[in-house]
Amino acid sequence: MARGKVVLMVVVCLAVAAAAASAASGGGHSRGRPGKSARLQLVPAAPGASMAERARDDRRRHEYISARLAASRRRRRAEETSSVSSAGAVAASAFAMPLSSGAYTGTGQYFVRFRVGTPAQPFVLIADTGSDLTWVKCRGAASPSHATATASPAAAPSPAVAPPRVFRPGDSKTWSPIPCSSETCKSTIPFSLANCSSSTAACSYDYRYNDNSAARGVVGTDSATVALSGGRGGGGGGDRKAKLQGVVLGCTTAHAGQGFEASDGVLSLGYSNISFASRAASRFGGRFSYCLVDHLAPRNATSYLTFGAGPDAASSSAPAPGSRTPLLLDARVRPFYAVAVDSVSVDGVALDIPAEVWDVGSNGGTIIDSGTSLTVLATPAYKAVVAALSEQLAGLPRVAMDPFDYCYNWTARGDGGGDLAVPKLAVQFAGSARLEPPAKSYVIDAAPGVKCIGVQEGAWPGVSVIGNILQQEHLWEFDLNNRWLRFRQTSCTQ
Ligand SMILES: *[C@@H]1O[C@H](CO)[C@@H](O)[C@H](O)[C@H]1NC(C)=O
Ligand SMILES: *[C@@H]1O[C@H](CO)[C@@H](O)[C@H](O)[C@H]1NC(C)=O
Ligand SMILES: *[C@@H]1O[C@H](CO)[C@@H](O)[C@H](O)[C@H]1NC(C)=O
Ligand SMILES: *[C@@H]1O[C@H](CO)[C@@H](O)[C@H](O)[C@H]1NC(C)=O
């Protein structure tokens, strides 16, 4: 009887210790103790894609981003003018289901392995900072999938990842549909259908798009299994795992559209309280980070996605060195991550770009996106940047190479012209954070012996997008609790 009491006391102590630990990490004070972060590998979806393919896909992606931003502007206006605006909200939300034209055309994205359900079922998903709903291809009671027969011309399935699979909610003990009558379905899930035939019916979506892409399915919650990092740098600490309960998951029973032949769905890293990023970050210190190796790196070099303290914090108690700038997480840009650009300079000279271009309030602004390859600059910024860069490169013979405006015969560099240095591009963010990408991130290898100025023009007014090539060889940490974006240059080898 005395022994029973002791056992009970020990159990209580353990429970208190666990609660204290999770409270500490939830409050953003985690110091990266071993097991306090989860690390996932990122694999390029189409490593062999040409620059021309990437440029084309990036333009489609930019259309998707612009359409979502416009839809959320419309919705905000509708909410301001009338309190009952369900029709307008539904029309606007048709853009919100992230499967519309160009969201996932394939070449610019990264795959991540993800396990969901009990027992855990493994999937290969597109990791996307521009999405709020995680979803997987699904086979349930409803209509069978038909889209797997069509082959994609663009995204060749990567041999590094497993072939597509389907999630079977009936096989998962932890799957729980979200009722359509729930507040989560009606207001938090932005794309759900407003009509609800009975209060127990599942929260569902059914969207078709002009470009023949479509998605139909139901939303529920399930648990996800993630591998915990070892905490000593190195290779992920083996087989320690954590289960995240209550992850919001779309179960897509019918889908069609390019980009989805090689993956099983999307892992949402956007800023939204239903996204996987916010769910995982709430468990692991309120932040996530990723590090992308050079897009031309050999296949065995791995990029990674970390929830919780990054490799810096794990190896020492000192705060991560590097720059930080406020993350703009307001409703106008959700679920995207916006940052404030102060100026762009070439060889130390700040370019003359109107401030509105960088202002979200003037329908400009800048987002950082994991699913865009080439950086897109709104017209005034694009013109200023390519003018300054091309002026410095004027000694080289130009080469025509669609869709780029400025390409150069780099092999001609040796004779005559001497050693022509690539001018130094720098982006100054609010809070004196400065991004100085390596030259290869903006004067890009486009063909053997040919380099191009690797930015694209975006419509003005419109949003500018920092693509993943400009982000490469940097660690980017999204501190959601404290609303900072931190970054620093690194080879991502940890
Ligand atoms: C929603 O309403 C439309 C039109 O009234 C109907 O065609 C559709 O089947 C309904 N969807 C659901 C999930 O009830
Ligand atoms: C999600 O955010 C909305 C407002 O954007 C809020 O009303 C809702 O309560 C939040 N849900 C959760 C689960 O935090
Ligand atoms: C990748 O493979 C090359 C040889 O194929 C090897 O030299 C290099 O060390 C490997 N890199 C990693 C990170 O394993
Ligand atoms: C680049 O210039 C060299 C001569 O300097 C020429 O042989 C080569 O064909 C040119 N390449 C292209 C792509 O124009």
TrEMBL record:
Active site location: D128, D369
Keyword annotations: Aspartyl protease, Glycoprotein, Hydrolase, Protease, Signal
PROSITE patterns linked to this entry: ASP_PROTEASE, PEPTIDASE_A1
Keyword presence, Coiled coil: no
One Gene Ontology molecular-function label: aspartic-type endopeptidase activity
Residues of the Peptidase A1 domain: 110-488
Swiss-Prot/TrEMBL GO biological process terms: proteolysis
PANTHER family per UniProt: OS05G0557100 PROTEIN, OS07G0603500 PROTEIN-RELATED
Name of this protein: Peptidase A1 domain-containing protein
Originating organism: Oryza sativa subsp. indica
